[in-house]
Amino acid sequence: MKKILCYVLLGVIYTSTSMAKTVMESRQTSGFGSSYQEALAAALLEAVRQVRGLEIGTEKQLQMEFQQIATGSSETTTAKAGVKEDIYTRSKGWIDSYEVIEVVKPEAGESSWEVTVLANIPKFQSDIKNDTRKSIAIMPFRFATATFAVNDQGKTTNAYQLSKRLKDRIQSGFTQSRKFAVLNRDYGEEFESETRLLSSKHVPASEAGRLGQVLGADFMVVGNIFDLSTKVEISTFYGMTDTKMVDRIDLSYQVIEVATQKVMWADTVSQEFPRKKDQKNTVTLDAVANIVVSGVMDVIYPVKVMDVVSQSEIYLNQGGDRIKVGDRFELFTKGRKIVDPDTGMPIKVDGSKLGELSVLTVLPKYAIAELIDGELKRVQKGAVVRLITQEEGANNTPVSKEARPTAGSSEAPIQW
Predict the structure, then answer these.
(1) Domain shared by 289 and 308, yes or no
(2) Quick one: pLDDT at residue 391?
C-alpha cells in the first residue's frame, strides 16, 4: 500500500523575467512505493500537492505521468539544462526540476521503496497581489414564476433575464465597494474552453502553471424573487393624459459562509418604486441592488470617516455606486463593542449622533462630504455614518396645516 511522507519547505526561488508571473517553490518530500518508479512518482506528486494542491482526477493523471518520467535516468542529472527543460515539458509545467536526495531500497522481507527528492515547483502568481480581503460570490436569484410583468406595456419579461440583471448590479455594487474580493461565477463555458486550451499541446508548458488557481468563495449571496411587477395608472383630465408607473418587488436574500453554511446576514425587500414614464425598469433594479448591497455593507463594513480637512472637506472611505452626490448621512461618534449576555457574541454599536453630512463629490474609492449640522471639532476619523433614507427624510419634514378647499383645488370641473 502506498504511503506519503511530507517534509518542510526549504525555500522560494524567483524566476527570470521570461516567467514574470511564476515563482519557483522548493519542497523536499519523500514517497513510498512497490518500485523505485512508483516511490519517485509519489514523492514528486506530494511536492506538487503541497505547492499547488490537487484534485483526485489530477492526482491519478500525474501519478501515471510521473512514473513515465521516472523510467529514465534523468532524475540524477537535473543539473543539465537540456534534461531540466525536458522534465518541465514532459510534466506540462507541474515540475521545473528535481534532484534525488536519498534512495532506500527494500530490505529482506520488505517490498517498499523510499525515495526522497528536492523538487522545484512552478506556481502562478496573480497580478492582484497581497489581497487579504474576504472573497464573495454573487449568485443569480431564484424566482417564483417563469415570467414577471414589469414593463411599460404590462407584457411579461423573462424571469431569468431579470434575475441575472439584478445579480450583475449587486455584483457591481460589491466590487465598487472594494471591501470584498468579488469572484466571477459566470461564463463557465468560456472559462472551460480556456482551461482546455491551457491543458493542450498548443501552448507552452509554462502556461500550464495558470491552471488550478481558481479561488473558492468565503461568502455567497443568494436570494429568491417572489414578485416583480409594474402597476400602470393612466388618468385623463380635460384632454391631458397622466401616466404613473409603480414597480413592486418582493424578495429575500442571505449572505452565507460557504465553509459552514452559516447565515451571516439575511433580510427581505418588499417595497414599491415609482418611476417616470421615460424611465426603464432598470432604474428599479438599480435601486433594489443598492438596497441589498447597503444592507450587507451596513452590517459588515459601514461607511466611515476617513479624514477631516475642513467643514466642506470630510473624506468617507467608500464611493462608487454605494454613495451618490446629494446623499445625506447621520454622523456618529466612533462607537464601541459590547457583549450580548445571552450569546456571548460581541456587538458593534454606534456612538451618539454628532450631526449630519451631505455628499459633494463621489469617486470610485471614496467620497467627499460637508458637515451641514454639528460641530466640526467633534468629527473624528473612524466615525460611522448612516445613510438617511427618503422615508426618514420625509418623516422629518414638517407637515403643513390643512388648507381650506377653494374653487379649483380639486380635480372636479370648476363651477363658475
Answers:
(1) no
(2) 53
The single-letter DSSP state of residue 210 is: G
Give residue 255's identity as a one-letter amino acid code.
Answer: V
Residue whose C-alpha cell is 461564463 = 187
| Pairing, β 4-5 against β 142-143 | unpaired
C-alpha cell at 208: 500550464
Quote the mean pLDDT of the chain.
76
Domain, as residue range, for 347: 302-397
* CA 293-184-228 angle, 5° bins: 45
Cell numbers placing 315: 473624506
pLDDT (0 to 100) of residue 98 = 86
Q: Distance (Å, rounded) from C-alpha 164 to C-alpha 143?
A: 11
Residue 249: Cβ-neighbour burial (10 angstroms; 0-12, 13-18, 19+): buried
pTM recorded for the entire structure: 0.58
pLDDT at residue 258, rounded to an integer: 85
Tally the domains of the chain: 3
The DSSP 8-state label assigned to residue 215 in this structure reads P
In this structure, is residue 407 part of a structural domain? no
Amino acid at 407: A
What digits encode the pLDDT tens for the residues 32-47?
988 888 888 888 888 8
What residue has cell string 414593463? 151
User: What is the grid cell recorded at 300?
Assistant: 459588515
C-alpha dihedral over 172, 177, 183, 187, to 10 degrees?
Answer: 10
Q: Are residues 368 and 290 in the same domain?
A: no
Map grid coordinates 492582484 to a residue.
128
In a domain, residue 222? The reply is yes
